[in-house]
Amino acid sequence: MDPISKKTTAKIERLAEAVMKTVKKGGNPFVEIPVRSLANVKWSEKHRLVELGDQKQQRYFFNVSMAKKFMQTFLVSDACKELIESGKTTSIRDLYYVTKHTIGDTKQNTFDEQDESDPIIEDLEVAIDALREELHLFASRKGSMVGPITIRDTGDTIDLRRMGSGGWAVPSIVEENVIQFEKHEAKYVLLIEKDAVWTRFNEDKFWKREKCIILQGGGQPPRGVRRLVQRLHKELGLPVFVLVDNDPWGFYIYSVVKQGSINLAYESMRMAVPDARFLGLSSFDKEKYKLPDNVAITMDDGDVSRAKQMLAYPWFGRKEWQKELREMMASGKKYELEALSRRGISFITEEYLPRKMRDRDWLA
Amino acid sequence: MDPISKKTTAKIERLAEAVMKTVKKGGNPFVEIPVRSLANVKWSEKHRLVELGDQKQQRYFFNVSMAKKFMQTFLVSDACKELIESGKTTSIRDLYYVTKHTIGDTKQNTFDEQDESDPIIEDLEVAIDALREELHLFASRKGSMVGPITIRDTGDTIDLRRMGSGGWAVPSIVEENVIQFEKHEAKYVLLIEKDAVWTRFNEDKFWKREKCIILQGGGQPPRGVRRLVQRLHKELGLPVFVLVDNDPWGFYIYSVVKQGSINLAYESMRMAVPDARFLGLSSFDKEKYKLPDNVAITMDDGDVSRAKQMLAYPWFGRKEWQKELREMMASGKKYELEALSRRGISFITEEYLPRKMRDRDWLA
Question: B241: Cβ–Cβ under 8 A, 6 or more apart, which residues?
Fold first, then answer.
């Protein structure tokens, strides 16, 4: 068993041992679980992350309202331990089916729907401080990657300089026991919101010319892509640049990559990249890059209220970000990355990006 | 320029030349476009495909209601010709931006929204009988592939036997000028509906043991995956097996892979695989593979009416298919592929699939 799997198994065992100890003493066994509700989420100025606070709840066995969840927690723990020991991984949907039983001669199921087992998985993650990937559970995956780097993926050596038009499909689990980085000449990582724009960058061999790793996550990047970007940043010391649409949704994608999200605050430490830089589209690019009015899209009410929310996020409190958001709201217009194609199909790879990098025209 | 691009460019030129000829003669220039409406879609028993019929419409220049679309058709043709000549590809969203202009001093735009340019692209496809991929336009992409085959992708040689847990990300354009097949030991192609199930097959190295190529398209497979499956079938003579959920949506996915869809009937010839076999989940598998009742999902009204529609499809007219669909409706239950995990996490790769193949237990 690899070191990560050993560590995770030991964590699950410790959880069970603590309970057994209480049972032997004749006590009421419980599991202690950090609270994942909004009330226990805070912005840490020091870590520059959206983090979980210190509140914890006890889940007791001898308690009518808690007994089922207590049992479910150990059912899921046990299934994950088995997964890890067998060296297999699976989806959270699959885990639901694996652990679904009808209890004895009753009509009672261990779980009736997946929306019962998913929160238990999250409970276990925070209770033992392990990412679900370390529990051998994967999320749905999307996204692709190419660049001047060789990786190892479950024993196969893959040269991401020679991946054609398709690229390497980023899996959901990209922990060190699965993916290792080998030789590379990359100077930075470029995370692109849209697969179509990524295809433009790949086709123009931008990554070769500029020595960078390009990734796309098909909109809001999935866990695998975010974790991989964090590892490239931390382990290889590569700066991370994010390229998204000029709209509140694009800004939100950047925000999640940078400091995590409120819903998944407990995993920010393992997913977020507080140093990630916002490269564009900036609300001021329409002027700088002479985009005609007819490629602008009028913001709708949803956009406006989303932008207002962001104005109030502490991590968008800096003068430059307030200016950026206010300009978008004042104009009432948003722009897609594809709008740059109005200036030419490769304008984005040949003029926009090179000028942005040369002028260090980004926000952090 | 590669042969496919040359051919497509010539087709666009012929379209323009025909119009110019009419102009020189003082006539009313027009483009002839096969009708894409439901009334002109038929099931061809001979080809076993959903096909376009013979109805055509003329789009005239000197006609108030047609002039704008006539102009748009040539605007799109021109942009595609430029794309092909520059050796670049782009998305249909991008093409919309590229071709969007405000005309002269008017407030009139060539296109106001993408839903105006998309049908024009389809018109051009049918008018000159070229897939949009041949026009260098790509759709959004998803899906991954591994197996005992080496491919070339835009000049890079990629060994799909050594793609780790991620796999090769299938691009949207997979025509012969982009993707070529090299050495392979595959005996068949297995198209899996769900990425999570594909991951199980990849992790268990099913493709290595059984010598097959495994692909997933994240639900309804995108154009790139469908076209690639067709090419693997036609060029390498590999049988194609489809593995989907036991529900009307899963059956529909199989149906589209096999004979195309009504909406995109004009491309069935280039996308569909009439010989594709349905491997499962069959409505009779719950008995054969002893699935407990508690993993069944009750069909809702939408499921039932969808299943009824399929009963009436001519290509589901064979006795076996009627039996299959009637069994699903009689039980009122549907099953996901993941339900097999109730029998063990690798039951699907170690028992289910091998037995299906051994017993030749599939529907064609």
Answer: B188, B189, B190, B191, B276, B277, B279, B362
